[in-house]
């Protein structure tokens, strides 16, 4: 099959629908996997090193992760909305809405902590603030766990909707 005919099958309405379903599920899955990695790997590891090192690692992962996570949320919303519009399958509406709910949650509860941690890091993250930094890391990790649960639930729902053939959640 030539590249032109492969592309033609992708832009065909049924090909576009399949691609959109795949991208929607993948975007939610990538977000969920990244969220899990923060709670299971990154945060426990940075609590075992010096405050200065912990702040550097956290800031580096935060600066990269925020771009990936925002793009995955936006991608899931756009592709999920398209699939829902074409199929009326609620499993492609509810999970992207769950992902969208992460945005105000993050801006309200996590952004102030992020700004505080970045500010402490910019000032050198001295040992005087070590206890405060550790407390902020624990609070951040706990609040981030909510995003992990929401995104993982959205991922399971989107997978179920993609493979079950069901279109109604309730």
Automatic annotation (TrEMBL):
Transmembrane segments: 23-46, 91-113, 145-163
Superkingdom assignment: Eukaryota
Keyword field: Membrane, Transmembrane, Transmembrane helix
One Pfam assignment: Anthrone_oxy
Stored PANTHER family: DUF1772 DOMAIN-CONTAINING PROTEIN, YALI0E30327P
Name of protein: Uncharacterized protein
Organism this protein belongs to: Lunasporangiospora selenospora
């Amino acid at each position: 099959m030539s590249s032109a005919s492969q592309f033609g099958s992708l832009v065909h309405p049924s090909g576009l629908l399949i691609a959109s379903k795949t991208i929607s599920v993948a975007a939610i899955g990538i977000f969920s996997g990244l969220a899990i990695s923060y709670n299971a790997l990154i945060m426990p590891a940075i609590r075992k090193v010096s405050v200065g090192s912990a702040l550097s690692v956290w800031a580096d992962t935060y600066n990269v992760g925020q771009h990936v996570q925002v793009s995955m949320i936006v991608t899931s919303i756009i592709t999920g909305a398209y699939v829902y519009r074409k199929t009326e399958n609620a499993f492609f509406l509810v999970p992207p809405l769950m992902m969208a709910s992460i945005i105000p949650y993050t801006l309200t509860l996590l952004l102030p902590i992020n700004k505080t941690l970045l500010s402490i890091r910019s000032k050198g993250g001295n040992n005087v603030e070590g206890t405060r930094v550790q407390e902020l890391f624990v609070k951040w990790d706990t609040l981030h766990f909510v995003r992990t649960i929401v995104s993982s639930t959205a991922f399971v729902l989107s997978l179920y909707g993609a493979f079950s053939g069901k279109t109604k959640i309730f």
